[in-house]
Fold these 4 entries.
Entry 1:
Amino acid sequence: MLVDTIPAIPAGTTFTDLRHLSIPAGSPAASLIERNVSSKQPFVFILVTTPRVQAGAPFPGGAFEIDLFPTVQVGL
């Protein structure tokens, strides 16, 4: 179930700020998560990236790290 997408990050961009992803109430993803939590079924978030390199351009070097800290906020 697709939760969301983020905009492309330009080459050479470095950032360490936190980025937040919210799952809208009533969305298919929120409904799926709610069902799994209610029935005490485990679920997994999978992060997918799609690097793009122009033909003939050198392949990027360096490191790419993503730290996921899922939190659940329950409200009325």
Entry 2:
Amino acid sequence: MPPQLAIPAAGEPDLALDAVSADAFRRVMSRFSTCVTVVTAGGDKYPVGCTVTALFSLSLSPPSMAVSLKTGSRTLDHIRAEGIFAINVLSWPQRELAKQFAVALPRHRFKDVDFTMRAGVPVLVDAVANVVCQLTQEIAVLDHTIIAGVVASTSTAEAQSPFVLYEHEAYRLIR
């Protein structure tokens, strides 16, 4: 039988977990190269979206994805309301969109962004890949919520190279 992980009770401090600062953790995580994505959803007055690097394929049967979003984010609220979201893997020419979708006011995030609507959700044109998912589950974890969705549609742009982050630097992944 594998060893059990001891998880402290809510509110009970765990010195081993408190020993790592946010800055130290950020430095370590910067060593994980990752494609940069924009997660999008429909909105009341305008589409919504945010930059995301914490996501993964969840299952092949059925095909599904999981994404981590800050709890209370506008994008998460709209995904819950609509029940559908898109994951857009940014291409190298779209690298400036990472900052735009991270820091711009929500109503300005889609300014000058070429997108189409698919199943009621905005999909970024010229992204390396687009995955539209039907929301199936969410799990609150610390200050984030992990959402899972069954894949409803996909598309790829074979001619595009993805925008990759490593050590807070932008790279173009060349095939």
Entry 3:
Amino acid sequence: MGMVFIIFGNNLFDASVGIANFNKEPQLEIYPNPASSNVTLAFNFIEKHEMSIAVTDLLGRTIETISTKQYSGGETKLSIAQKIVYQPGMYIVNITIDGKVISRKISIE
């Protein structure tokens, strides 16, 4: 039996398994949060993606970046606040995956 795809708006669904193939955020964990240092970003990708990370303070100043790189499918772990000392406070982690930005807040104690 072949695959059956159904289009709803901008989403493409594989009707054979009922899972959206487009516009789905990857599984993402950020821990510990709050942290005192060294924050882990863990991703579980189904396929290859280009990703970069920029951490900003609440005033929009860039604190740390991880340049764009291609990551293969499966689990990927990256660390921030490992080589740079973050002052206590709130930060925004901006994760760009294939041009789409996902933002998460982290707290450094």
Entry 4:
Amino acid sequence: MSTSDWAIIISLASFGVSLAGFLWNVWSKFIYPKAKVRVHGGIFETFTPGIGKGASFINLSATNFGPGEITLTHAIVNEPRLWPLREGMTGLLKLMVTDPDHSRPQYDVFGNGQLPRKLAVGEQMSVRLSKSAELFKDAASSRRIGFADSFGRNHWCSRKATRKLRQALAAPQEDDKGKTPQ
């Protein structure tokens, strides 16, 4: 083969790669766009004027950044894989369906009407979770929390927000008198 034959082969191969990239971009942007969902988690406390601080809870929120609407079906937690060839376990989180200040909060896997929920572009939704030390067993836990959508995709809370949440749950909690338990 001569140099010109190699040049034609390389040109045809680069044309094929460019065409495949163009078709993928058209497919992912215009024919079948996926909604982008940003998930954030944090610890919040209820506050009543005149009474003061109440119960604390984990607030898990999701915002749809478009380009289309999406249906969130479950709040989920992921246990990372233990072996390189095994997949990690994913489980459903129990959502708080009563006020956190209630003497005995009630929980439901499906959130008592909160989930599934359809989110339009720019819309946000939040669910409450129990402030449980079992969610992140220790500060080194690598569990993640997020939402599952109706297409089977998972949308996770950012690693930075998860790390802050994990550290806040692992820190010693103060009781009503402002002292840390012994």
